Amino acid sequence: MARYDDYHRTVIGYHGTGLTAALRIVNRIEDFRWSDRDYDWLGRGIYFWEYAPNQALNFAKIRQRQYQRKKHKTPDDRRRATEPLAVVACMVRLGFCLDLTEPENIEYVASVYQDYRALMAEMGVEPPGNSRKYRRLDCAVFEYAYKVIGESAPNSTVDTARGIYVPTAGDRRIWPGSWIARDTHIQLCVRNPASLLGTWLHHPTGLEVNDVCEALRGGVARVEREDP
Questions:
Q1: What are the backbone angles phi and psi of residue 173, rounded to the nearest 5°?
Q2: Which of 165, 162, 171 minimizes the C-alpha distance to 189?
Q3: Residues 119-130 as b or e (16 or more Cβ within 10 Å = b)
């Protein structure tokens, strides 16, 4: 069984996005967007980088380049492709956390994977696969694990999942054979929005009132300032 304690502690998570969405989140006009893609590696939820604001900003840059390359852009796509980027900081209470730094939880997820494979075989369904970027099998197994945990006992819903991402490609190692890899980070998947205790704008800083008002209206603020 998973080590499934209530973590009475908080961490700071960072979420990279566009400035419009960031300001609307910190001003409580809208909530964080729930990611429900079938290839989210820790399952569906709200994703944060734990104590890693630069990782969050890099992710926002990658997403913006994807919008820039997209054909047949909608007006919202065009805004996302050109607007300033931002990082929202959030105090996250881990609560009931499926923490994958705990050896017991690694073994638990491994056993859930075997049960999941057996269930798919019994149903005559081929499980999804993983590729370099799209972790459909990981997502399916974690979603199955959350379902099993939720059905195992009353009030046992997972609030958060926490895992260390380590790139496996050889070119990410800082030298041949090193255990140190670029882009290694701790990622949080928040399943229970009540775990989000408070948010603030980490980047950019020094916004003018007009910039904020324009972004809150859904426009593109013309921000060229950088964090000091």
A1: -70, 140
A2: 162
A3: eeeeeeeeebeb
Contacts of 127 (CB under 8 A, 6+ apart): 116, 117, 120, 137, 140
Q: Identify the pLDDT of residue 225.
A: 41
* Helices H / strands E in the chain, number of each: 6, 6
Local structure of residue 44 (DSSP, 8 states): S
**pLDDT at res. 171:** 82
pLDDT at 206: 80
Overall size of the chain counted in residues = 228
Q: Identify the CA nearest to 199 among candidates 210, 190, 187.
A: 190
Give the contacts of 130 (CB within 8 A, at least 6 positions apart).
136, 137, 138
> Would you tell me how many other CB atoms lie within 10 Å of the CB of residue 117?
13
Nearest CA among 134, 82, 143, 86 for reference residue 112? 143
> Smallest Cα–Cα separation from 36: which of 44, 27, 28, 25?
44
196-203 and 160-165 as β-strands: parallel, antiparallel, unpaired?
unpaired
pLDDT along the chain (228 residues), means of 10: 70 96 92 94 97 96 94 91 95 94 93 96 95 91 94 83 87 86 93 95 82 66 42
Please tell me the distance from the alpha carbon of residue 223 to that of residue 106, in angstroms, as a whole number.
44
